Amino acid sequence: MNLIDARELKIHDQPGLNFEISPESDGEIEKRLEIERILQQSTDQCLDPSKLRYLAVSSFGLVTDDLRRILWPQLAGVDLALLERAPSLSELQGHPEYNQVLLDVNRSLKRFPPGIPYEQRIALQDQLTVLILRVMKKYSNLRYYQGYHDVAVTFLLVSGEEVAYAIMKQLSTTHFSECMQETMEATQRRLMFIWPIVNFENPKLFEFLQRSAVGTLFALPWYLTWFGHSLNSYKTVVRIYDYFLASPMHAPIFVTAAILLYRADEIMLEDCDMASVHCVLSKLPEDLPFEELLTISSKLYDTYSLTVIENEVEQLLHKEKEQRRLEDTIILERRKKQLNRAPFAIGKLRLSQWLPILLTPKSVIVTTAVSIVVGCCAYYYKNQYLAAGIS
């Protein structure tokens, strides 16, 4: 399992969100009226937690942003009576993460509604920067990662600055806690949970994906941003956030598995190599039926326990380790064979190649000069000895 440091993670720029408001379907109208009726009958618009989770998970979710402003804080466990005043941006400029956060926020212009006045957009960007840095300051043990701002901007647009901060503060210590560690090791291990689910449901697809060696990098932005980075429809993004807020923290893994299973035929039409498969997986089709996929995800979660999945992951990791050990052994044996053949190669080099190497123009000149000097010395000393009567 290749590990990626959180500081090195790069998420490429994404297309702008489509904020177009489409007419409500009959199902959406019925669901909205149901929620409004329940709110009217409730005390202080506070719903029973189990009832609220059901409304958020079931078809069409919470339907409108007006309802989400009321119900998202309840799903996240936020007490609106305890909201804190937001500091100014200048008060947070000394934070170590300031420059990186500012850079990411400035690159996220396409995640804001188009056509908003310049002053309002600048204000939203400042609020987003402050929101993120407040969480980082609150929890010094957590590490910001690229993609965190995609989550934060969604809550900011729906709930406003103070409530969005309270929600992100809560989620950063629960749903996103693994993503905010010093490295991405825990996150990448969590993404491995995709494979047992796929294998249980579609062994042929699992075998194809494993043979392609595609890994789980394609799903990393989905997991880190709750699909907020990878989807182009604002309506779809907030619908999925309804689902995740009301679901266990591992729900994105099951949604990812549901997407792979739904696209199985399309995936297996590709060439079985890493590049081809990664290319098709990393681009989510715009026409994915997410209501159906969320239903499939819930069924998968109810069917397969996390304990069973984790045991399967342990076996996969063991197989990967054994495969790497085998590959290392093969490489070592190959090197030993090369070393054993080395003396013969050196012998051949002495016979056929040493002379051309030694007899370079420079070496010939030096050898000739030394020979002349030695000859002159020998002639001189011989004459001296003869003159002295020494034979």
From TrEMBL:
Gene3D superfamilies associated with the record: 1.10.8.1310, Ypt/Rab-GAP domain of gyp1p, domain 3
The keyword Zinc appears for this protein: no
GO molecular function, one term: GTPase activator activity
GO biological process: endoplasmic reticulum to Golgi vesicle-mediated transport
Domain Rab-GAP TBC per the UniProt entry, residue ranges: 62-248
Domain of life: Eukaryota
Keywords from the named record: GTPase activation
Residue ranges of coiled coil: none
GO cellular component, one term: endoplasmic reticulum membrane
SMART domains in the cross-refs: TBC
SUPFAM superfamilies the record matches: Ypt/Rab-GAP domain of gyp1p
PANTHER family tied to this protein: RE60063P, TBC1 DOMAIN FAMILY MEMBER 20/GTPASE
Record protein name field: Rab-GAP TBC domain-containing protein
